[in-house]
Design a protein that fits this description.
Number of strands: 24
Oligomer: single chain
Shape: globular
Number of helices: 22
Structural class: alpha/beta
CATH topology of the largest domain: TIM Barrel
Largest sheet: 6 strands, mixed
Strand order of the largest sheet: 9-14-13-12-10-11
Amino acid sequence: MRKLLLPVFIASIVLIGCNSNTASKQATKTTLPDSLSGTFWDHTIDIEIRLDIVIGQMTLEEKCDQLLHDAPGIERLGILPYNWWNEALHGVARMGRATVFPQPIAMASTFDPELIEQVASAISDEGRAKFNIAQKLENYNQYAGLTYWSPNVNIFRDPRWGRGMETWGEDPYLTGHMAGAFVKGMQGNDPKYLKCAACAKHYAVHSGPEGDRHHFNAIPSNKDFYETYLTAFETLVRNYNVEAVMCAYSRTYNKPCCGSTELLVDILRDKWGFKGHVMSDCGAILNFHEYHKVTNTPEESVALAIKSGVNLNCGNTYKQLTSAIDKGLITEADVDANLKNLWRTLFKLGIFDPYGDNPYSKLTGDVVNSEQHVKLARESAQKSLVLLKNNGVLPLKKDLKRLFAIGPLVADVDVMLGNYNGQSGNVVTVVEGLTNAVSLGTRFEYRHGFLLDEPNKNTIGWAISEAAEADVTIAVIGINTLLEGEEGEAISSALKSDRADIQLPGDQLKYLKQIRSRNNGKPLIVVVMGGSPIALEEVHNIADAVIMAWYPGEQGGNAIADVIFGEVSPSGKLPVTFPKSVNQLPAYDDYTMKGRTYKYMTQEPMYPFGFGLSYAKLTYSDIKTDITDVTLNNVVNISVKLSNNSTTDVNETIQLYIKAKNIVYDTPNYDLKDFKIVKIAANENKEIKFTVPYEAFKTYNDNGEEVFTPGEYEIYVGSTLPGKRSEELGAPKCEMVSVNLKI
């Protein structure tokens, strides 16, 4: 058995924590032995003093080793190894059993920060519990720590990007507040300790192409840089105190993101007040000399990263730190400063503190994939589903005579899990969810029927005939993580995990048409899986109902059945625009926002941002404002009447947009400024209120400056993005009121 490196006192209290039966017991304060008083183990003294003590006791080589993601232990100081690399995109990832929640793009569809905070709190409970157990096993390997490299707050600017599914959509405001709720849940609410450390990535202008990410140079306009690409990062730093920031592989304005003092010092620390640690993406510092060619040697790359404030190297390049010091490129004081920023996080996590002082040390394996967390996974999946079309066939009755399910993803486990996922013994596929829900008297069968991304090789094809004979057919189609993902992940992608277009792959559309042509008008329900927009115009025309189900997590199959059979009304809203085809998109490697997202797209989309139907007939009316002239420090109080003209209780996501009129520089078509979820009962009328602060009228000029320009502004409140297309698809008409901004 490996020798424990911690002093006996510390080791014993860690093991006591791992053996505790419940996380709810009141922590017992531990008396510190005299031998540890005044040392860096002394939790009664200020963290900054403890940092000075421990760094002062390390040799130069030991300090340098601690700036690597797989930091070794320092036996003579009683310090255990610590691997900083851990993942929790939508559940504790790559560390065995955990609850798998919906992919972030799906969770973004809930428009529900309170729910997301609950999800993240469940994830971090499981993460702490697994850490406690791993420590007992002396498992200090990758993915066993408490520093989680999530959330991904890059803007999903182009649906071809393979990693868009990891994000919170295309809108910076929605992204900031949904991901911010995730950070709150991950880091906990203890006044002294972090439950886990969250990380905002990939800073800053980074969202494909995947194949170019090691050498790409993004040069957006100043307006796009500050309005679109930085906003969510700023929100997480200023409003949610995210503990870590990961700099990206690529360059921004000719400088590597991990070698840019403008990004990492001037903006992040000096302007926004960031106090946590900065890490490189994995191998990003190597890119300085290998791909970006801004340095000539590893030592020069190390020096550039250290001087730019990269506290942690995911990779091996920082193994050249001592050599860089020997060459006079950096000093030991530079190393000390970076190490202090990094290790402050370890102290905040309570790594060196007694068990009795840290409430999170008492979390045990009982929380992992617990009944409560599985229930939460189902609820979050239910609320993430977006109903894109319904001609009245949904919800289905459970006592059908014959139901048939077909499609390449109908029984697929992987499509439930997405990427950066854990493992669960509770994964429910679509066919399993339908089986759990439908009447025992119903004849229910399923077949794959057709392949995902290539033609059927057997031309006989019984499944199409069987589908045509059923009373109702549910087709489960789309894409999966073989076709989209991170650089080396999606093995069916010819573009290093990106997509060349957004069409349905293979012959899926052809087989849907065959079912439609042969089923004599009987209901055809299409469930679309995937993590990014797909061209669905023809699917929309063929199907009676269309549901966007994303990668819905371990309870996805049950959640889909819950919506199809009316156990819950769908409430999800699209966090990203669905174009009709790739022809509506600008060049993929162009980082301008012109023509992109709901803010600047001029062509009619297939499905607008914010769109999603429910089983209720809702109307908005009687919008009112308390003032029409808005001056500095004013707030605008808005009220609108929401009516549920149906027999179904629903949760409605109400969205507020502002549109600037007659401003000389480009402003968004519409700009999301607030949203809230309201439960409204059948046949109920409610008055909905918003308070719009003066700050909401801020725009960005061509220089990227925040400005308040006097003039007319329209405020819209409704179920979705305002406009003709939303109404054509069945969304209720938004209400609008105008105000005048005065300086």
